[in-house]
Every structure is written in C-alpha cells, then in structure tokens.
C-alpha cells in the first residue's frame, strides 16, 4: 500500500471514507451544509483527508440519508439526529444480544 492508498478490501468496507463532500451531498440529494449540520449535531464525525477535507463512509451516508428522510417528514434536525443515533445503538445492542445468545447455546 502506498501512502494513504486504500487497502484491498476498502471498497467492501462500509466504514472506509471514500466520498468527498460534494460527491456525498450529490449522492444524497442534500447540500454540503446539511452534511456539516448533521455532523455538528453529533450524527457522526467525518473523516479528514490529509488536506483537511471532509470524507464520508457509506455508513455516514446511510445515517445522513435516514436523518434527511426524517427532516423531510417535518422533524427538527436535532430530533432526527437523536432518533437515528438511537436506531443505530439499538441495532448494535440487538446484534450483541444475538452473539451472546449463540455463545450460550454453544456451551
């Protein structure tokens, strides 16, 4: 791997910061200001390139898209960010419960 070049599995990694701000905003149909706003509200922390530019992963974009849908439905941005954050926490907890249940069954 040369410098900060992506590794062989980077395209499959949903956490790899592959999208520049303009591409991310275009992909979601939002403005760059919306992406900055959801980041400021705590939805995620954008990665930074060596030059200091924001970079977004597919996971970041999925969270921002979910928040956008809630905002489009009339929800305030801070409430949308909180809901999305809680949805992700619940999904992670559910996954952990399933892992622990499997481990118990294997014993």
Summed over residues and divided by their number, the pLDDT gives a mean of: 91
Radius of gyration: 16 Å
- Please report the distance between the alpha carbons of the first and last residues: 41 Å
Quickly give the structural class.
Answer: mainly alpha
Summed up, the helix count is 4
Total strand segments: 3
Task: Give the strand order of the largest sheet, numbering strands 1, 2, ... along the chain.
Answer: 1-3-2
Strand portion, in percent? Answer: 5-15%
Q: Which shape, going by the Cα principal axes?
A: flat
How would a textbook summarize the main sheet? 3 strands, antiparallel
Q: Approximately how much helix is present in the residues?
A: 55-70%
- List segments where confidence is low: pLDDT < 50 over at least 5 consecutive residues: none
What is the chain-wise order of helices and strands? EHHEEHH
Structure, described:
This protein is mainly alpha-helical and 107 residues long. Helices cover 58% and strands 7% of the residues. It is built from four helices and three strands. A hairpin with a 5-residue loop joins strand 2 and strand 3. The mean pLDDT is 91.
